[in-house]
Design brief:
single chain, alpha/beta, 358 residues, 13 helices
Amino acid sequence: MSRQLSARPTRPAAAPGRCAVLAAVVATVVLGAAACTSGSAATPSRPPSASATVRPQYAALAAAVASHGAKPWVEADLLKAWVAGPTRYASVMDAVVALAGRPGVAGIKIADELGYQDGTDAKTDLAFLTATTRALHQRLPGLKVAVDLIVPELGCLSWAGVPASVVGPSSATSRGTCGSDATARDPGVALAAVDRYVAQGGLDVLDLSAGLRTNAEYAAWGTTRDAAMAAAWDEASRRWGGTVRLQARKALAHPGAYQGTRESAEADVHTYVDVPLAHGAHAVDIWTWSQPYKGGTYTLTDPRLAPNALTAALLDRRRRGVELWTHMTPSSLQVGLDQDVAAAVSIFRGVLVASGTG
């Protein structure tokens, strides 16, 4: 899930000739020939490898989420495995399929922040998406495939046709520089690249962060955080809403006790939940239930599942019928499996369960 709190470690860039090697990996995974030059692959289905194993604590978490009436999804960084090479990719794919094939699992998220600070490019990312979604759809018919993305040009308000009612007329140069700098750093998350992923990548669900800028930047551009979010989601819905299910995503977890107020919690939930839902999002993914990060443990609740102003605001949205998702891993439970799952699903209808594949 997008944390946007610090830069992620960079994955190694794909080596020359990797396209041909990864074509072989797709053939290994799905028992068919692959054509990596176009980012597509022929992928007849097969059952999980006999050697694929599901770590019991991850299976137990997925089962507990389902038994409490929520929808478990499996999440794994298959892009990282793809870049690592054929053997690793095939191994991770088999493990993910074995876990996602268990009763109640609704789908698989296959990459975390695709194309963002990960050392890949748009061509590599599209080839990965096309091959991986095809393999999963054929090996697990009926399950959905998702990916999450940060698209900085949306937060920069730098696309052609941003409504004049949203931004000041003198801000065009600054906004354009914001967008061009972002895509120069990470070409794999440019709007044009995402257009291709949606059109050709075989995805069912796009978990989307608009990559909002600071309040000070928006003030200088003659706008506000909420107005920028609304414009960004209008553009995302226009471009991609007819092809994939769009969901918003935001990191709101914190170390220790929540330091905000009721007012700041409501402001954040309004920006990152209410506004996207009013402009085309179908659900909102909130990182994270509990996870070690930056030397501490980040949670949405206060320690040991204690409620706070943020969880109160999220619970209020759930009671209004909003579909919220979060992330869970059995390696970071605050109290215990049953207690954590029961508390989580009281707020969240969807839970992205770690696959345990690294």
